[in-house]
Amino acid sequence: METWDAIRARRNVRDYTDEPIPDAALHHILEAARRTPSANNRQSWDFILVTGREALVELAKTWPQGGTHIARAQAAIVLVAPVLAEDQAGLVQYDLGQATMSIMLAATDLGIGTGHAVVRDQDLAKQLLDLPDDRFAAYMIGLGYPADRPVRPLRNPNRRAFDEVVHRQRW
Hints:
Blueprint: H1 3-9, H2 23-34, E1 46-50, H3 53-60, E2 75-82, H4 86-109, E3 113-118, H5 122-129, E4 135-144, H6 162-165
Antiparallel strand pairs: 1-2, 2-4, 3-4
């Protein structure tokens, strides 16, 4: 898939088939995350790949209101960051957002669906993932082949109109 097609095809997928994701595909997606640009090239992230069914079910409990799809995924990538002072946290959050999109586009390019979620229960996440005290689990991204329809460019995405969101020179 071409980059523009991957951008147009990317959507949140939260229901997955039972088809396993090949290790080479997971490596490719994680390599895309590793190569993501970051502020001052700090690369202050770590990525934890979770593939075991029991571990995915437990991981979903870190946000029961919005992360239940993680339990049904074939894999999840947890984005981990350092605990920082509030005045420095913004850059890390921006970097994690960029890494999230890199993961999602790389997966989409391979026909793999993704669904993102925040991690709310940090105590549970630390226990499940054996995180050091100076780190927290920021986000998790479920991965799997979509159960409803293949990943392909969307003709009519549910987005605000171009002219409504794009401003030139000023508001």
